[in-house]
Amino acid sequence: MSEIPLFYVYTYNDVDRAFWAEHLKDWVPPRLLDAHVHIVDPAFQIEPLTEELRRSYWVMELLEMQDVETAARCIRTVFPGRDVGCIGFGFPSLDWDVEGSNAYVFAEMARRGWNALALVRPSWTAEQIDTLLAQPGVLGVKPYYQMIGRDTQQRDRYLEASIFDFLPHHQLEALDARGAWVTLHVPRSGRLGDPDNLREVRELRRRYPRIVLVLAHLGRSYTLPHAMEGLQPLADDPGLYFDNSAVMNPEVHRFAIKTLGTGRILYGTDNPVFYMRGRQQWRGTTYINRTSHSFHFNKEREAPEIEAGYTLYMYEALRALKWACEEESITPGQVQAMLHDNARGLIDRVLRNK
Ligand SMILES: [Zn+2]
Fold first, then answer.
1. Please, where are the H alpha helices in 38-191?
2. Is the Cβ–Cβ distance between 270 and 248 less than 8 Å?
3. In this predicted model, what pLDDT tens digit does every residue of 25-34 receive, in sequence order?
4. In CATH, what number is assigned to the domain containing residue 68?
5. Mean of all residue pLDDT scores within the chain
6. Which residues contact 198 (CB under 8 A, 6 or more apart)?
7. What is the DSSP string of 17-59?
8. pLDDT in tens, 314-325
9. Where residue 63 falls among pLDDT bands split at 50, 70, 90?
10. Which end of the chain, N or C, is less surrounded by CB atoms within 10 Å?
11. CA of 304 relative to ligand 1 center, distance in Å
């Protein structure tokens, strides 16, 4: 069979079909729930990225957003024969029409029986949060430090912000009152293990215990040292959840399963970014993204015969998770918990409280 387009520069080809058949087909359960996927009509982008910003950091070149029809088509392609649900949200940036993005995502996700999180401006009042949460299928919010202010020069102007700078207490009170969902991408270059992050996550859990708090990307643990610094100190809180989106490192998946158990990990892709083709390599606390497309950031190419064997990042992430499960003797039931049931149970809890 031939190569077919997925989205943007991403395609699905015979390497992917063979990878699915060899590594994933017999392991991926019949039902999946992607708890971290960006879905929004690109028409809601009001300010195009400057070329300077686009070339400033690898992920900036991958921020083309997929509308809901594209997302559904890609899901049917990459998960043949599977029943896949999503928790979707727009792209958290003030270069986008935040209100318009939210309205689009809420309507389109509800139409498909999927669920949505709202992007939030830190300036919004508790009443505005309440109005968002009252929309059908909306579980909660996806705050982000870039929502503090616009910066056309640099991506990470607010990286060192406090969590409460972009998710203020008056919003947390409204979210707690409704038992709503928060998917939190932790700030700070030290990632989850930064003492200020650990203290603020504990404070958030203590003061707002009804919130379903999900730390995105296993707390941004893309390497084993970061996972050890961030996950271990929070392992004793059974009500704290993690999505494993954008994590490709098998040792990180294994450490997360060992440390947190399988009842608190939710599957996520971070698509559309993880339709990229290639692999990741790690050294200490750093990683390098290998890919075969001629992005600006793609300076260190591998040999053509190696690149020809690349599959989708999201497939590599699933293979890494599968390896971790095998190493830790995880049962098929526990695999299904991480890939579907944990998120489903939390969604049902939030919807009952609405
Ligand atoms: Zn994301």
1. 51-54, 68-78, 98-111, 126-133, 163-166, 169-177
2. no
3. 999 999 999 9
4. 3.20.20.140
5. 96
6. 192, 230, 233, 234
7. HHHIIIIITTTS-SEEEEEEEE---GGGB-SPPPHHHHTTSGG
8. 999 999 999 999
9. confident
10. N
11. 30
- b/e burial code for range 292-308 (CB count within 10 A of at least 16 → b): bbebebeeeebeeeebe
The Cβ of residue 46 has, within 10 Å, a number of other Cβ atoms equal to 12
143 prior amide bond cis, ω within 30: no
CA Rg, the chain, in Å?
19
The domain of 125 spans 4-353
Q: Give residue-wise pLDDT tens across range 118-145.
A: 999 999 999 999 999 999 999 999 999 9
CA distance 171 to 125: 7
Task: Note the pLDDT tens digit of each residue in 211-225.
Answer: 999 999 999 999 999
Q: How many domains does the chain have?
A: 1
Task: Give the chain's length.
Answer: 354
**Distance from the CA of 250 to the center of ligand 1, in angstroms?**
20
Tell me the C-alpha distance between 162 and 197, whole Å. 8
Q: What's the gap in Å between 300 CA and the centre of ligand 1?
A: 25
